[in-house]
């Protein structure tokens, strides 16, 4: 198998991007970007450790959980998780960050690229609290580029069409997966029950 190694080789396979595809990139958040972020309950965060190791992690909460602080700054609260801190530690090493905001049922997405810093500022933590529970920390992103991404990926995948979804009963539970991958002694059902309890107790 041969691999492409130059920009010239790569570009020879594709058409040049249209004028609007280039011009749509914004340096600041406009009203449409603000509205999209305010309605989005889910964002994917891309980061790198600066040594060639990349990571993508999901963040989800009530719609509008990511707050727009101004036209070039947004704040993403970090709620309780598995404490691996892959993304946060990456951002300490390399502040470059890529975001993809989703709204359920909408095929278009909002992409934001920028630079991130992490804060535990008490005022901002309190401002982003959920039912009195503040986030552990907050990712503050300085926006460098923002633009709407077209619908083709979601249309091809039929992601939002329930009739295209697999039968959940035919897929293994996380407990079953962890039992196999970690060679756990306890049965899969016990792990699933433990996970359900943990979800209920430590969602926020």
Automatic annotation (TrEMBL):
Residues 30-150 form the Pyridoxamine 5'-phosphate oxidase N-terminal domain. Pfam families: PNPOx_N. Signal peptide: none annotated. InterPro entries: Pyridox_Oxase_FMN-dep, Pyridox_Oxase_N, Split_barrel_FMN-bd. This is Pyridoxamine 5'-phosphate oxidase N-terminal domain-containing protein. It comes from Neomesorhizobium albiziae. The lineage of its organism: Bacteria, Pseudomonadati, Pseudomonadota, Alphaproteobacteria, Hyphomicrobiales.
């Amino acid at each position: 198998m041969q691999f492409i190694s130059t920009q010239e080789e790569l570009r020879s396979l594709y058409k040049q991007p249209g004028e609007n595809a280039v011009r749509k990139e914004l340096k600041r958040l406009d009203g449409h970007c603000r509205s999209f972020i305010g309605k989005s309950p889910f964002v994917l965060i891309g980061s790198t450790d600066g040594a060639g190791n990349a990571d993508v992690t999901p963040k989800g909460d009530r719609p509008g959980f990511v707050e727009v602080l101004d036209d070039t700054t947004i704040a993403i609260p970090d709620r309780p998780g598995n404490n691996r801190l892959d993304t946060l530690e990456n951002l300490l090493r390399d502040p470059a960050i890529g975001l993809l905001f989703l709204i359920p049922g909408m095929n278009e997405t909002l992409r934001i690229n920028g630079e991130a810093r992490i804060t535990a500022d008490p005022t901002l933590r309190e401002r982003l609290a959920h039912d009195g529970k503040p986030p552990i920390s907050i990712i503050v992103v300085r926006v460098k580029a923002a633009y709407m991404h077209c619908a083709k990926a979601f249309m091809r995948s039929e992601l939002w069409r329930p009739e295209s979804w697999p039968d959940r009963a035919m897929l293994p539970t996380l407990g079953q997966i962890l039992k196999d991958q970690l060679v756990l002694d306890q049965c899969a059902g016990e792990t699933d029950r433990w996970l359900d309890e943990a979800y209920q107790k430590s969602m926020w």
